[in-house]
Amino acid sequence: MTATDAPPLVPAAEPGTADLRVAVLGVGLMGADHVARLHRRVSGARVAAVSDAATDRADQVAAEVPGCRVVPDPLAAVADPEIDAVVVASPGRFHEEQVLACIDRGIPVLCEKPLTLEAASSLAVVRAEDAYAARTGGRLVQVGFMRRFDPEYAQLRELIASGGIGEPLVVHCAHRNPAVPPGVTTESVVNDSVVHEVDVARFLLGEEIAAVTVLRPRSTRHAAEELSDPLLVLLETTGGRVVDVEVFVSTGLAYEVRTEVVGEDGSAMIGIPQGLVRQSAGPGGAVRGTTVPAGFRERFATAYDLELQRWVDAARRGTVDGPGAWDGYAAQAVCAAGVEALLCGRRTEVRMEQR
Ligand SMILES: NC(=O)c1ccc[n+]([C@@H]2O[C@H](COP(=O)([O-])OP(=O)(O)OC[C@H]3O[C@@H](n4cnc5c(N)ncnc54)[C@H](O)[C@@H]3O)[C@@H](O)[C@H]2O)c1
Ligand SMILES: O[C@H]1[C@H](O)[C@@H](O)[C@H](O)[C@@H](O)[C@H]1O
């Protein structure tokens, strides 16, 4: 199920308030999905403008939404007085300036992960939003860690919080993509893929990550040259728990995202369809195990719906109801240590400012 073929959400916005006029910056794979969701499934908002470095792409996406304008310069879209809120879905290297422009204008922004590409620039976003909060008491930034809105992750968190499996000790994660676009590097796998598990670990365990170690097992023959794939990433939390992440981005098969938490009194796992599931290439390269989703758009369709609906509802109330700038910064600080650990081959401590 993707943005366009699922049944609409139940309207959630409060009556009597005007629709939020949203600009979406970057309408590639993710941005175009967000436009379709905001247009067809989410209530209380309308896509008033789109902006993309590829103007033909922007024209094509805008044509699907009545009343949607194309604004070629993304910063002009942010500055436009007829825009109330922004979704940033451009490549990560543009996030910092686009999010800072939203904070400068005092409008809410949902920024796709990663918040920025480095810990220092993410911290600059935190500081800018803190200055805005000191002046107004409000918050503006939400980061697109959509797994927090996935019903299975939410259920797992509640189970842990209720003591249902006792004190959590170890978390095992698998994050497997069938393939990644050309140009993806081993370092960008840490920043773009492992960043989800970093946020999941903080979300489930409620503590920071203190150190990262990265192991490089033998690489698959399916990986692009120079890509170390899979990786095993070990995250040690401040409370002494350990999270292991197998990240494998060129399986050639399907999209598998699993998380198992092992506690003192039990364990719980999410992300596995019931029954025996086998993933293997069949004759002629066909993929068996079709109950496993093909990609993140299918697996997390409900999470993206809920993420956008809650962002719109909160933005209309002048608040943020989801992972904020600090969560984006914390994840980048861990990923920076992860890239360092990858390059030096040793356990690396995370350097993070005090909140
Ligand atoms: N949460 C998730 O599950 C998820 C999934 C995929 C991608 N993402 C994130 O979404 C973002 C976009 O990824 P994608 O897969 O859609 O990439 P993409 O390459 O498909 O799309 C990016 C688009 O941005 C445009 N662009 C380039 N420079 C721009 C600029 N300065 N301003 C505005 N647009 C610009 C490109 O022309 C392209 O159309 C990334 O941050 C990525 O990490 C998140
Ligand atoms: O940008 C994508 C996206 O964030 C997906 O959710 C993740 O599974 C991929 O590994 C990553 O490349």
UniProtKB/TrEMBL annotation:
UniProt keyword annotation of NAD present: yes
Family note: Belongs to the Gfo/Idh/MocA family.
HAMAP family: IolG (MF_01671)
A GO biological process held by the record: inositol catabolic process
Keywords: NAD, Oxidoreductase
UniProt-listed PANTHER family: INOSITOL 2-DEHYDROGENASE, PTHR43593
Stretches assigned to the Gfo/Idh/MocA-like oxidoreductase N-terminal domain: 20-129
EC number(s) reported in the record: 1.1.1.18
Function: Involved in the oxidation of myo-inositol (MI) to 2-keto-myo-inositol (2KMI or 2-inosose).
Domain called Gfo/Idh/MocA-like oxidoreductase C-terminal: residue spans: 157-341
SUPFAM superfamilies attached to this UniProt entry: Glyceraldehyde-3-phosphate dehydrogenase-like, C-terminal domain (SSF55347), NAD(P)-binding Rossmann-fold domains (SSF51735)
Protein name listed in UniProt: Inositol 2-dehydrogenase
Quaternary organization: Homotetramer.
Keyword Oxidoreductase: yes
Enzyme class: oxidoreductase
